[in-house]
Amino acid sequence: MIITRTPFRISFFGGGTDYPEWFKKNSGQVIATSINKYCYISCRYLPPFFEHKHRIVYSNIERVKNISDINHPSVKACLESFKVSKGLEIHHDGDLPARSGLGSSSSFTVGLIHALYALNGSMMDKDRLAAEAIHIEQNVIKENVGSQDQISAAYGGLNKITFNMDGSFDVSPVIIQQERLNLLNDHLMLFFTGFTRIASTIAEKQIQNINKRHSELLQMQQHVDYAIEILKDENTPIEKFGELLDHSWKLKKKMSDIVSTPEIDQIYFTAKEHGAIGGKILGAGGGGFLLLFVKPENQLKVQETLSNLINVPFEFEKAGSKVVLYEPGGL
After folding, report:
1. How much is the pTM?
2. Same domain assignment for residues 187 and 159
3. Same domain, 164 and 240
4. How far apart are the C-alpha atoms of 161 and 180, rounded to whole Å?
């Protein structure tokens, strides 16, 4: 049996410039971090004593004889890509709900690819792991997804990710003092809005609007470098990072009329009234998790004000996708 643990991510700035429709003409960049909330994938050979050949357990349970009968798009695409011949049981568990803006679908795909390679006795480098997950999601499943989630899940850590016009990418860790990193972490709060959504649907509309929102995307791309300057200059108040988040969120809302909702706008307005400096809905928008930048002394007030929402404490993590149980075999 193989078990992989793959982190979810928080994207701070540059989201939208990681879509191929944008970066193949303009290049792109984001700054994002992985967090200590994870997707777990267990994968083992299924003994040949059952009517079904494959068993896949997630929010549904699938028992099928052929890979072509699998409903889960990522599982089906990955098993077809690996040309799996033996029966498999695949089990998914996640620390946080799907469709919530934390890159959960990409963490699933990265974790599954990682598990399948490990089950075959092969270890994957992070670059190839991310690239294969991007290929599966964008070219095989044909989801409307960007390219940052798979990279953050595979690599882990706080990174500037650059997307080149030839389709390649570069990952540069953001090197700052641990105290500065802790200070940033201490100013962040994560709330679940209670609304889940299909990210691909929202992303599709944003992609359609890319040519109309060239100015906004260029500004959002520039925010990546501004954010890194803020983090690296210890003489700059960390609150400037929160102010930049607020500015970027206003730009992101212009990308599509379904990025936000009246309910989300009200939550954000209320949070700012009670001490939040900035924030954003994570992922494509429309629901899921709301990230807020709040001074530690104001966080209790914000939490009490948003008491109807689930507050999820978190910490940054650095490991990326990893195999936590390894008993190799052969496909």
Report:
1. 0.93
2. no
3. no
4. 20
